[in-house]
Amino acid sequence: MDGRERDRDGAGRARNARPRDGLGRPLAHGAEGVARQPEGVVRSPRETVVEAQRLLDAGMPFHAHEVFEDAWKSGPEADAALWRGLAQLAVGLTHAARGNAVGGARLLRRGAGALAGQGNAYGMDVPGLAGWARELAGRVEAGERIDAAAEAPRLAGRL
Question: Beta-carbon neighbour count of residue 17 at 10 Å?
Fold first, then answer.
């Protein structure tokens, strides 16, 4: 260690306070990063979809994953698999855009699997999102460079 104590949150849990870029990669202390997504925000399903879409469109799937994670952890148990699967899609897109083809494809497929058999929910074409993830996973494995904003899925119809 360099003599600095680990960053801790108010409850004493280790937290990395380094700024992050739009794909969630840590930057050097003092560098200018993007604002972190607040944790533990309780949103309605519609608010979750709208906020996640905004972040995906901005090329920030890591941050969108945090929105889905909040919904998964704070919402009804009946919706947990949906939000967890969507979080995995967002993390898969994150890894793919970072150049991690193996991790990106694996998480995209895991998320697609988690969404398998689910019907449309909250205005989202869930089977279509699973298909998008499987198709993107194949392109990632084939070596295609991925731009997170350009590849952002459309979660729902008019928001």
Answer: 11
Q: Tell me which residue of 81, 48, 84 sits closest to 69, measured CA to CA.
A: 84
Question: Quick check: 37 and 67 in contact, CB under 8 A?
Answer: yes
Name the one residue in this structure whose structure tokens are 């607040």.
Answer: 38
Q: How many whole angstroms separate alpha carbon 150 and alpha carbon 86?
A: 18
- Dig out the tokens for 14 from the structure: 């280790």
pLDDT digits (tens), the chain, 159 positions: 444 555 665 666 555 678 888 788 887 888 887 877 778 888 999 999 999 999 999 999 999 999 999 999 999 999 999 999 999 999 999 999 999 999 999 999 999 999 998 999 999 999 999 999 999 999 999 999 999 999 999 999 755
Residue 67: count other Cβ atoms within 10 Å of its Cβ: 27
Task: List residues bridging with 20 in a β-sheet.
Answer: 26, 34
pTM beyond 0.70, yes or no: yes
Q: Give the integer Cα–Cα distance in Å for 41 and 68.
A: 10
Using CA atoms, how far apart are residues 106 and 92, in angstroms rounded to an integer?
A: 7
Residues 6+ apart with CB under 8 A from 16: 7, 26
Say whether 17 sits in a helix, a strand or coil. coil
Instruction: Kindly state the tokens that stand for 35.
Output: 């604002």
